[in-house]
Write a structure and sequence with these properties.
3 helices, 7-stranded mixed sheet, 2 domains, alpha+beta
């Protein structure tokens, strides 16, 4: 009975590969992942283990999409050698077919048996960078603020250019008063 409880707890600690790619930032820690690997059959009948490539729901920043869209695997080495894989996986937005998401990964098989699909993974990085998408409305607000700020800075520069003349006059008057007091 205790063995079944332990196995259930271990299963609950595992995150799916799609959740790992979608929701976890690049880090320095291995994450236990379920369904990380799949069995594939070569044309000659040989079976081998490869990285799974689940569909992902990610933000697409193209003008056509501008929202949460499905991304599908398009490129990258999925092969596993001696139970490990260092690779880049490229995903393409399935809606606009313009935006890419590239992941740099390390994956290893946790169980030495070849029929296991679970493993551990580490995300070295991704591009575009991990994090919440900045809404276009907010970007337009920043753009409008930047334009207003540059106009205000331009006006201050114009005022500053005229200030040294009056300051020079004030300095010269102060200098005359100080000289006459001696």
């Amino acid at each position: 009975m205790a063995e079944a409880t332990t196995a259930t707890l271990e299963e609950d600690d595992l995150v799916t590969f799609s959740a790992f790619l979608e929701n976890r930032p690049p880090s320095q820690h291995l994450t236990k992942i379920k369904n990380l690997f799949v069995q594939t059959r070569a044309p000659m009948g040989d079976e081998s283990l490869t990285l799974a490539t689940p569909d992902l729901q990610l933000h697409c920043s193209s003008d056509q999409c501008n929202g949460l869209r499905f991304f599908r695997y398009s490129d990258g080495d999925r092969s596993v050698h001696k139970g490990t894989a260092f690779t880049y996986l490229t995903y393409l937005c399935s809606n606009c077919k313009n935006r890419l998401k590239i992941f740099s990964l390390y994956a290893r098989l946790d169980d030495s048996t070849t029929n296991s699909s679970n493993g551990s993974g580490l995300k070295f990085g991704e591009t575009p960078a991990f994090g919440p998408a900045t809404p276009n409305r907010l970007l337009k607000l920043f753009e409008a603020t930047a334009i207003s700020s540059s106009k205000a800075a331009s006006a201050r520069t114009t005022i500053s250019a005229s200030e040294p003349l009056s300051t020079t006059g004030a300095w010269s008057r102060t200098t005359k008063i100080a000289s006459s007091m001696r």
